[in-house]
């Protein structure tokens, strides 16, 4: 009788050790997943921070370029009337996209974009314009990347930030 009770206690103790080990392994796996999720969150925070910093720098550069264009316009027109000047400022910041693209190409950091778009043959430009018109921005970026363009060229062609292009290519499905 005592032997059977001891046998049951021994079996119960072995089973409890087995379950403790099983719970410990599950807990360690959960901690590993938590660490990897924390690392991914930190990487995403850093990537978004870099993206926002680059976007702020590009916006500052664009505003500076538009201000320079505004000053150049003032010198050409010699407008003394404040009302016309205010109207010009309103239209400067509500310019069509091609004017903003010209201002962006005039900036010193965009010499690559100006040379690449000027060196492309006209047939290639028409071909890419007709094919990219029906695609979304993400699809256009992916297509340009598959065609061998590097991220900086794609950013200049699409008038987007390099980090934005990198993020779109990184998170493509």
Largest sheet: none
Residue stretches low in confidence (pLDDT < 50, at least 5 long) are: 110-120
Over all CA atoms, what is the radius of gyration? 30 Å
Helix content: over 70%
Number of strands: 0
Count helical runs: 8
In terms of structural class, how would the helical and strand content be classed? mainly alpha
Distance between the termini: 67 Å
Instruction: Look at the structure and give the mean pLDDT.
Output: 77
Q: What percentage of the residues does DSSP assign to strands (E)?
A: under 5%
Order of helices and strands: HHHHHHHH
Overall geometry: rod-shaped
Features:
173 residues
Structure notes:
With 173 residues, this protein is mostly helical. Among the domains are: 50-106; 112-173. Helices cover 84% and strands 0% of the residues. Helix 1 runs antiparallel to helix 2. The chain is rod-shaped, with a radius of gyration of 30 Å. It starts with a helix and ends with a helix. Mean pLDDT is 77; it is low at 110-120.
Q: Secondary structure elements and their pairing?
A:
Blueprint: H1 2-77, H2 82-93, H3 97-106, H4 111-119, H5 122-132, H6 137-146, H7 151-158, H8 162-170
Task: Briefly summarize what is shown.
This protein has 173 residues and is mostly helical.
